[in-house]
Amino acid sequence: QVQLVESGGGLVQSGGSLRLSCSASGITISKWHINWFRQAQGNQREFVASITPDAEESYASAVRGRFTISRDNLKNTVDLQMNSLSAEDTAVYYCNAVHPITTQMYWGQGTQVTVST
Fold it and tell me: How much is the average pLDDT of 39-67?
């Protein structure tokens, strides 16, 4: 059974940092496209960042230069380092895994990030 579990969310002041982690079981995370999405209250879920099996990184324009995605193959985790946070980053952050060939997809349950002004 595949499971993605996000952790690391919480309350942080504007300008602060948080590090989210996506821990996978049932899949080898380095063989999947791993994406971070977020959904603010009342908004649609939006793409934040991704890392491919070849370790290519992509970022949404809103977070480029502030967020960094990274993968730890030994721990089977993908982290999202978030710096210079602002109120606009407040959202539930979701980890998503997509198989590069079958496009089978899994989602985590999400972790809340709240940035106070």
Answer: 98
Coil, strand or helix: which one is 31?
A: helix
> CA–CA separation, 55 vs 113, rounded Å?
25
Burial of 28 (0-12, 13-18, 19+ CB in 10 A): exposed
Alpha helices in the chain (DSSP H): none
In the chain, the percentage of residues whose pLDDT exceeds 70 is 100
Cα 86 to Cα 38, 50, 77, 98, 104: the distances in Å are 14, 21, 25, 29, 33
Task: Check residue 62 and give its pLDDT.
Answer: 98
Six-digit token string for 20: 């989210």
